[in-house]
Amino acid sequence: MIQDLASDLDPIPLQRARGAGRIAVRADGEVTRLSRLYQDGCAKIRLPTDHSAKTLEAVLINSAGGVTGGDRMSWRIDVDVGAALTLSTQACEKVYRARDGRAEVDVLLNAAAGARIDWLPQETILFDGGALARTLTAELAPDARLLAVEAVILGRTAMAETVRAGELRDRWRIRRDGRLIFADDLHFGGDMAALTALAPTLGGAAAFASLLLAAEDASRFLGPLRAAIGASGGASAFDGKLFCRIVARDGLALRRILMPAIAALRGDEPCPRVWGL
């Protein structure tokens, strides 16, 4: 009787993480200053003091310690006329095994006239059974500048972890003056081990990154970027855009390539200090 009753009960719903962070900045002469800051749930934003940085820096934090199926995170960044903001994360975002559903992360970047946004989160680590759907949307003024980077590690090689199953969806939509100028949809799912072993995907590698520079002078960075990534990826530039993908055997190898690649796209300005190896 007790067993029959238990079988009729719905599973106890799991607690889910919710977070929303908003930051807006403005130019005050040659200095960028905070205009608005909003934090809700597990989304936190900190503004570290770094006198060596050329722009204002913001560090995004997920105080839940990671995401799993059903979690929802959203970030909105507004950079006003002539301002510049660099964004990173306190640590790698971790995508844990999901009992059901996907974790969802939405990012909206708005850059006004003459503004600059460097979106430089640290790597996302996808664990076995994890599922993540992430969107990156940017609305750029005609002369705004955007550098966007997303890096993914499939398990931790040092811990002998293998991602056998899971799902990753990355959707990028970049618009300039209301017109779509760049779109990218990346999807891994199902038997991850078999899929990523194929030569057209990762060829057995466990880490990769996507980099986009949207700027009028983007093409002049193509040579320095190719020199930085060597044979670990490919890059092309056209019509005010530069796009690159990098593949590496593990997270450490990826970071050793990615950091000089980011610096090359920032005119030799290094990654935020939270990226330090």
Main features:
single chain, mainly beta, seven-stranded mixed sheet, ten-stranded mixed sheet, 277 residues
What can you see in these coordinates?
This protein is mainly β and about 280 residues long. It has one domain (about 20-275). It has 4 helices and 17 strands. The chain has helices at about 1-10, 190-195, 220-230, 250-265; strands at about 20-30, 30-40, 45, 55-60, 70-80, 85-90, 95, 105-110, 115-120, 125, 130-140, 145-155, 165-175, 180-190, 205-215, 235-240, 240-250. The strands form 2 sheets. Strands 3, 4, 6, 7, 9, 10, 12, 15, 16 and 17 form a 10-stranded mixed sheet that branches. It has a 7-stranded mixed sheet with strand order 2-1-5-8-11-13-14. Helix 3 packs antiparallel against helix 4 (about 250-265). It is globular and about 55 Å long. The mean pLDDT is about 90.
